Amino acid sequence: MGRRVYLDHSASTPVDQRVVQVMTPYFTEVYGNPSSVHHFGRAAEHAVEMAREQIAQVLNCQSNEIIFTSGGSEGDSLAIKGIVAAADMYKPHVITSSIEHDAILETVQGLVDADQITATLVPVNRSAAIEVSSMGNALQPQTLIASVVYANNEVGTVQDITGLAALAHEQNVMFHTDAVQAGGQLSLDVQQLGVDMMTLAAHKFYGPKGVGILYVRKGVELSPQQRGGGQEAGMRAGTQNVPLIVGMATALRLAYEELEIRQQHLRDRRDQLIAGILHHVDGAQLTGHPEQRLPSHSSFVIADVQSEALLMHLDMLGIAASSGSACKVGNPEPSSVLLAMGYSAKEALGSLRLTVGLQTTEEDVEFAIRAVVVAVEKVRKLKGVLAT
Ligand SMILES: Cc1ncc(COP(=O)(O)O)c(C=O)c1O
Question: I need a surface site. Which of 40, 152, 222, 260 has the fewest CB within 10 A?
Answer without folding.
Answer: 260
